[in-house]
From TrEMBL:
Function text: Catalyzes the transfer of the enolpyruvyl moiety of phosphoenolpyruvate (PEP) to the 5-hydroxyl of shikimate-3-phosphate (S3P) to produce enolpyruvyl shikimate-3-phosphate and inorganic phosphate.
Cited PROSITE patterns: EPSP_SYNTHASE_2
One Gene Ontology MF term: 3-phosphoshikimate 1-carboxyvinyltransferase activity
Domain Enolpyruvate transferase: 10-216, 237-439
Keywords, sorted A to Z: Amino-acid biosynthesis, Aromatic amino acid biosynthesis, Cytoplasm, Transferase
Keyword Transferase: yes
Name of the featured protein: 3-phosphoshikimate 1-carboxyvinyltransferase
Family: Belongs to the EPSP synthase family.
SUPFAM superfamilies attached to this UniProt entry: EPT/RTPC-like (SSF55205)
Keyword Cell division attributed: no
Top enzyme category: transferase
Any one GO cellular component localisation term in the record: cytoplasm
Length: 444
């Protein structure tokens, strides 16, 4: 961090989603990959341990780089006793690894923290059953913990309902490339949430030598190949993936910065007195949470790019304005936008984010309850939040984290309104951003 001419400069942490995918793709490869910039956090530790339990060798070097020796497309499970995979609190680890192990041989037990056992996985399991896996549920059907037994992914034509999580699609795509035959994966149900995370999966699969063809339905009802990079959101029945059997190829790769965890600092720039600049973020990133820039700009913040990175400062004239925004594609930045909205001069309406209720906590209710404590006028809707201007009460306040990293990280932005939140479990940030509090000191 450097401070010069009232500008605070911060290096963005590594992308959580791309780190998960890079280590998974490397672990499915034949041979050794060297990855740089891989996030160090509790969620990543769990993904790496799960991959080790399937036979991959993963070593973190003293320079922070990660060396992965893969399993050549066949994760190895147990024969007399299932391989043990503890996904802890990480939905990404749980859903992506469930796909990955289905491509293996043997049995795998997937379990996690109590909240993980309340986060669904039934829609993914149903498709994997059609592709040859057998699930034995230990608790409630459709939720971890469970034991998955498999002799590989058969291939064929299947459909997945991605209305509650895109992670089901990502898990299936990663697995299908190790299948015996081509898999044609369609989308069923009413909607597809969090589409940009599917694009991140497609990006990493292409990088590791297993490109996926994506087809869209034309006006005559025929599926034709399209450039998946141009898809902004997929529509059930209209988008289809064609995954041919392939071999993940080991490689050296670098992980880019994380737009979700950058959002707290960018929002602090918009609501504070000094601009904040972040380096390490790609302007052309496929991460959906890059939307934070457009949202802050629409609220009136000053946004600019230079060779040093992206800079966000408070509005030049007047106060921040409210915004009306569908956040189906970028759920993780809803808490950030909600806290900025509480400091704006007009109404904000956030919609499209019903899937926030099945994250590490019910984030719609969590944000409503905690923002209300400081005087914000917040209504929870089925799929979002409505926030109206109201005077906020400065001073210290006890706040709940709900054990969910994004709740304290986002509520910290209230410090720019003279509020000092005191959190019950501040350490929960280590899920995705163990150095958050240290870095936050720099913007105080
Ligand atoms: O695939 C991923 O890396 C993720 C997908 C998103 O989940 P959903 O698709 O369940 O919304 C996001 O919320 C999560 O933090 C990371
Ligand atoms: C929802 C999140 O992660 P996951 O689904 O991997 O638990 C998150 O990081 O906000």
């Amino acid at each position: 961090m450097t401070t010069a001419n009232d500008l605070i400069h911060i290096a963005a942490p590594a992308s959580k989603s791309l780190s998960h995918r890079a280590v998974i793709a490397a672990a499915l490869s034949e041979g050794k990959s060297r990855l740089t910039g891989v996030l160090q956090s509790v969620d990543l530790d769990h993904t790496m341990d799960c991959l080790r339990a399937c036979g991959a060798t993963i070593v973190r070097n003293s320079d922070g780089s990660v060396e992965v020796t893969g399993v050549s497309g066949t994760p190895r499970g147990g024969e007399s006793k299932p391989a043990d995979l503890d996904v802890h609190e990480s939905g990404t680890t749980c859903r992506l690894m469930t796909g990955v192990v289905a491509a293996g041989r043997g049995s795998f037990r997937i379990h996690g923290a109590p909240r993980m056992h309340e986060r669904p996985i039934g829609a993914l399991a149903q498709v994997l059953e059609n592709l040859g896996s057998v699930f034995v549920w230990e608790g409630q059907k459709g939720f971890p913990p469970f034991v998955l037994s498999t002799s590989g992914v058969s291939g064929g034509s299947v459909n997945v309902d991605a209305g509650e999580s895109s992670q089901y699609v990502s898990g299936l795509l990663l697995a299908a490339a190790c299948g015996a035959e081509t898999t044609r994966l369609g989308l069923s149900g009413e909607k597809v949430v969090s589409w940009p995370y599917v694009a991140l999966t497609l990006q990493i699969m292409e990088d590791f030598g297993v490109p996926v063809e994506v087809e869209e339905c034309d006006e005559n009802g025929n599926f034709v190949a399209c450039d998946w990079r141009s898809i902004t959101h997929a529509v059930p029945g209209k988008t289809r993936f064609v995954v041919k059997p392939g071999r993940y190829q080991s490689r050296d790769a670098a992980v880019e910065g994380d737009w979700s965890n950058a959002s707290y600092f960018l929002a602090a720039g918009a609501t504070g007195k000094r601009a904040i600049e972040l380096s390490g973020l790609r302007q052309d990133s496929l991460q959906g949470d890059r939307a934070i820039l457009d949202i802050l700009e629409e609220m009136g913040a000053e946004v600019s790019w230079s060779e040093n990175g992206v800079k966000v400062g408070p509005p030049k004239n007047g106060a921040l304005r409210g915004v009306t925004v569908d956040m189906a594609a970028c759920p993780d930045i809803v808490p950030t936008v909600a806290v900025v909205a509480a400091q704006a001069s007009s109404r904000t309406v956030i919609s499209g984010a019903a899937h926030l209720r099945i994250k590490e906590c019910d984030r719609i209710e969590a944000m409503r309850s905690q923002l209300s404590k400081v005087g914000a006028k917040v209504q929870a809707t089925d799929d979002g939040l409505i926030i109206d201007p109201a005077p906020l009460t400065p001073g210290p306040v006890d706040m709940k984290s709900f054990g969910d990293h994004r709740i304290p990280m986002s509520l910290s932005i209230l410090e720019n309104a003279g509020i000092q939140p005191r959190f019950d479990t501040p350490e929960c940030v280590s899920k995705s951003f163990p150095t958050f509090w240290e870095m936050w000191e720099n913007v105080r």
